[in-house]
Amino acid sequence: MIFNKILLKSAYLVVRNLQIIEHMIGKKPAEYQMSIFEVVLESFIDMNHELVLLSKYIDWTEVESELAEYYCVDNVCQSIPIRTMVGMMLLKSIYNLSDEGVVSRWLENPNMQYFTGEKVFQKRPPMNSMDMTKFLKRICEKEWKKSSR
């Protein structure tokens, strides 16, 4: 009886830790629990908009698996999801914006929010502009070290 309780508790902790680790390496949850006060993006954006179509064309799972190595699993802080970071970098490039510009445009543009993987309209930015600079620097440094070996 006691052994079964310990075993169940251990199994629960393993599953919970795996969920936490997956969240820390920058993956968005597969399912999203909405509030009645949130507005679903798909209910009011044009599903034929270029960013919506591009978001469906990109294999985000592959992008996440390719860039997961740049995320620290044992970091105490929750990381910004990889899709959000990569999406913001792509938006910055597509629209020729600064880091600050893409963050402020993202906040007011539901198509950009959908492109970066949001399910509901967000009223706060997912990051500040310095997070984008740090993300790019981290990837460039590690890629440089890999190629120089």
Description of the molecule:
With 149 residues, this protein is an all-alpha fold. 58% of the residues lie in helices and 0% in strands. The chain has 7 helices and no strands. α4 crosses α5. The longest helix has 23 residues, at 2-24. It starts with a helix and ends with a helix. Residues 11-15 have low confidence and may be disordered.
Descriptive tags:
about 150 residues, mainly alpha, globular
Q: Approximately how much helix is present in the residues?
A: 55-70%
**Can you write the helix and strand succession as a string?**
HHHHHHH
The radius of gyration computed from the alpha-carbon positions, rounded to a whole number of angstroms, is 18 Å
Q: How confident overall, as mean pLDDT?
A: 79
Question: Separation of termini?
Answer: 55 Å
Q: How does the major sheet shape up?
A: none
Shape: globular
